[in-house]
Design a protein that fits this description.
There is one protein chain. The protein has 303 residues and is an alpha+beta fold. The protein has three domains: 87 residues, Rossmann fold (3-Layer(aba) Sandwich); 138 residues, 2-Layer Sandwich (D-amino Acid Aminotransferase, Chain A, domain 1), CATH 3.30.470; 61 residues, Dna Ligase, domain 1. The protein is 36% helix and 22% strand. β1, α1 and β2 form a beta-alpha-beta unit. α1 crosses α11 and α3 runs antiparallel to α4. The protein starts with 6 loop residues before the first strand and ends with a helix.
Length: 303
Amino acid sequence: MVRKYGKVLVLMGGWSNEREISLISGKSVLDSLISSGVDAHELILDKKNIELIKEISPDRVFIALHGEGGEDGEIQSYLDRFSIPYTGSSSSSSEICMNKRKTKLKLLENKFQTPKYLKIENNSEIKFIEKNFSYPFVVKPSSEGSSIGVFIVDNKYEFYDAVEENRKISEDFIVEQYIDGEEYTVGIINDLALPSIKLKPPGKFYDYDAKYKSSEMQYICPSGLDIEKEKEIKEISINCFKTLECRGWGRVDIILDRKYNPWIIEINTVPGMTKHSLLPMAAKEFGIDFSELVLKILDSSFK
């Protein structure tokens, strides 16, 4: 069965702020493919060696790049130019999902519930923001992953600090309505919604430190939701995935507010793929081990 894949190139690294996480994901994927008997090779990508993809001449590519360059449609567009099949969503879908403003526009057009937002312009007045958003509210970049640059602010001074920090990494960032509730994530593989995971961070929210550094972060899978609510957020996640024309695999992040109403926060088109990441965790709960999951994702390269 594995012979049908031909030469598979695993792209990892890249040039985003999530490069180090991508290297871990990519190595886990590479090791798994080799263990499964796939003719798999790696390329630690940067802006200077992208032409090596053509020289390697793979039959298909497993994209394990997170953030800018990997999740925003850039590498997908490059591969499309040379008709090289790849895992996951198309360039256009990736580009929309990577940008939180574009994602929200699409979601709102299709009647999904997502927190209201406002792009922060250089001349944005704090009084205008305070008129439209009550504290606390969220400040975050439009096109970063791993919760990089995300702040929950309680007053205008924290807002100024958050804006200052965001300007170090992006020129495009937003204010977003804060939803008081509990965080969940639903992994998707092809047309299957995996068991939801409840996220219990030690701080205010599931930030970068909670994801990658904290020993107190709790992941609860199965999440403990009742059957009807679990079914509801799975259906919402699948419908959201299809509406945004995503393909193959991904993860939908949701907050259930205090009345248990679901709010879509964002869609990840290249989720983490370490053996401790959320998508593999949900797959394992469903009965899909890591090696099988990697092959199922690779199957999405057959368009």
